[in-house]
Amino acid sequence: MKLILDSSTFNDLQARFTAEIVTRIKIKLQEAAIESDRLEDLTAEIALSIAGVIDDLAGIDSDGVEVHPYLTFRTDDETLLHWGENAYTHEQVYGAMRKLFQRSP
Questions:
Q1: Residue 10, Cβ neighbours under 10 Å: how many?
Q2: Contact status, residue 93 vs residue 26, Cβ threshold 8 Å
Q3: Superkingdom of this entry's organism (predicted)?
Q4: Would you list the domain boundaries of the chain?
Q5: Whole-number Å distance between alpha carbons of 69 and 84
Q6: pLDDT of residue 105
Q7: What number of CA atoms fall less than 13 Å from residue 8's CA on the CB side?
């Protein structure tokens, strides 16, 4: 498998990935009948928590083993695309939230 550095494509895929996570969180909260006045805040809180784990900001320790995720995207069966350092999905959450909850920047 090839690991390719492509920050432009990675940024686009990361934004789409983050938007999908935020959307799925909102849907599950709606299915759980979360009140509409709490829906946006809870969606953002959960999305930022997950993004922190993906971006390796959360400090994961499992049975004394440090876990450090590194986000890549498979573009075909033989190629992984990366950004060159840790992901920054937490920064993408706000844009995804604006679109999903129809807020102006």
A1: 20
A2: no
A3: Bacteria
A4: 2-101
A5: 13
A6: 60
A7: 0
